[in-house]
Design goal:
about 425 residues; alpha/beta; glycerate kinase, domain 1; 6-stranded parallel beta sheet; 6-stranded mixed beta sheet; about 40% helix
């Protein structure tokens, strides 16, 4: 369970109500609790042999919770940060993220071998969460080509659903591939959603879900970002069609979303109301260039100051993107916060907080950052320029200097990002 004390930064130091709101959001989407709550009300189908497959950043916590209530014959877990699982016959593999590597290929090989032993009489319970697309792969192209494609997509600001569309059409396990390889076994997938609109095929690239997209859709993404001459030729020649919703392999597959960004937002809203804030959830489908979304959130805050009584809290969730222009350090949450610094300058008693619910924003040890109306002034005293840091995508270094990074460590869950704006 998260506590308010885990959310430390200079600006949060005098706002314990804010940290309690953040902790409530995180605890509402605790991965293990989500599995236990679902199984309490939805018993699994009966089967003599039950296997468990965990995939994603929350796989350890989810599979452990499953093992507490279900006798498992054998389990395989693919995750980013392995933790000790205290039940028998379980193998844990660490893949690579956000760019797949040899660990991811080893995980894909292990997954194919694991499901090859199943029969129609068996039950496979999958625990799927965000990050799985990179952590496990059985690519139809050389690994180095897949790495080049992934890096190019991340650098150009492609949305995660677009990235995962290409991944599905280049992999043996994604886009229903795991279900297809399971020899007709009955499958129940318990899913933590980390994608906008909870599209099941996009979460970990949908290993047990039908894929509504086609090769033509994959090609259109390459064209949209003008990547044809920047990626290996094997990418286009190796695209393959995936199983569609009417494919018979899904007749014995159940995909159930058990936690999502909306749940985290509602929990944050409830806690904010308990703390005395007027609240409004703006949206759970934030997308777009992170720094611009930061400005847009501040614009909504400024408008609300004219209409809503203080104290109030505006809440939003989703997943923005960053188009890389420099070689700095950061992530989309930190970039969003950096984009809000100058827009928020001069406003009194306000705060914008960004948070990656998995605890890891980009390739950093921070989950997000905090901005107040005084951040710009503090920045100038340090001789720092917001546009300069934005130009090189260096939000981590910027907020580290202000002591306003949020560091909570890997959270064990993953339901996308949260943005909260407070007026006190």
């Amino acid at each position: 369970m998260f506590t308010s004390q885990q959310f430390n930064s200079f600006s949060l130091g005098s706002r314990p109500a804010v940290t309690r709101v953040l902790a409530s959001a995180m605890n509402a989407v605790d991965a293990g609790a989500a599995v236990r709550n679902y199984l309490r009300e939805n018993p699994l189908p009966s089967s003599k042999r039950v296997f468990a497959f965990g995939l994603g950043k929350a796989a350890c916590a989810m599979t452990s919770a499953l093992a507490d209530s279900t006798e498992l014959l054998e389990s395989l877990v693919v995750t980013k940060h392995a933790s000790l699982l205290d039940f028998e016959r379980v193998a844990v593999i660490e893949g690579n993220h956000p760019v797949p590597g040899l660990g991811s290929v080893n995980a894909g090989d292990a997954a194919l071998k694991f499901v090859s032993q199943l029969t129609r009489d068996d039950l496979l319970v999958c625990q799927i969460s965000g990050g799985g697309s990179a952590l496990m792969t059985a690519p139809r192209i050389p690994l180095e080509d897949l790495q080049s494609l992934t890096s190019a997509l991340l650098a150009c600001g492609a949305r995660i659903d677009e990235i995962n569309t290409l991944r599905r059409h280049l992999d043996q396990l994604k886009g229903g591939g795991l279900a297809r390889a399971s020899n007709g076994a009955q499958i129940v997938s318990l899913i933590l959603s980390d994608v906008v609109n909870d599209s099941i095929e996009a979460i970990a690239s949908g290993p047990t879900a039908p894929d509504p997209t086609t090769n033509a859709d994959a090609l259109s993404i390459i064209e949209k970002y003008a990547l044809k001459d920047k990626i290996p030729a094997a990418v286009i020649s190796s695209l393959h069609e995936t199983p569609k919703p009417d494919d018979p392999i899904f007749e014995r597959v159940q995909n159930k979303i058990i936690a999502s960004n909306s749940i985290a937002l509602r929990a944050a809203q409830a806690q904010a109301q308990a703390e005395g804030f007027e609240t409004k959830i703006l949206r759970a489908d934030l997308q777009g260039e992170a720094s611009l979304v930061g400005c847009e959130m501040v614009a909504r805050l400024r408008e609300s100051i004219q209409r809503m009584p203080r104290p109030f809290c505006l809440l939003a969730g989703g997943e923005t993107t960053v188009t890389l222009k420099g070689k700095g350090k950061g992530g989309r949450n930190q970039e969003l916060a950096l984009g809000a610094v100058d827009a928020l300058a001069g406003l009194e008693s306000v705060m914008l907080v960004t948070l990656a619910t998995d605890g890891e924003d980009g390739p950093t040890d921070a989950a997000g950052a905090v901005v107040t109306g005084e951040s710009a002034q503090r920045t100038k005293k340090l001789g720092m320029s917001v546009p300069a840091y934005l130009s090189r995508n260096d939000a981590y270094v910027f907020f580290d200097a202000l002591d306003d990074l949020i560091r909570i460590g890997p959270s064990g869950t993953n339901v996308n990002d949260l943005v909260l704006c407070f007026a006190f």
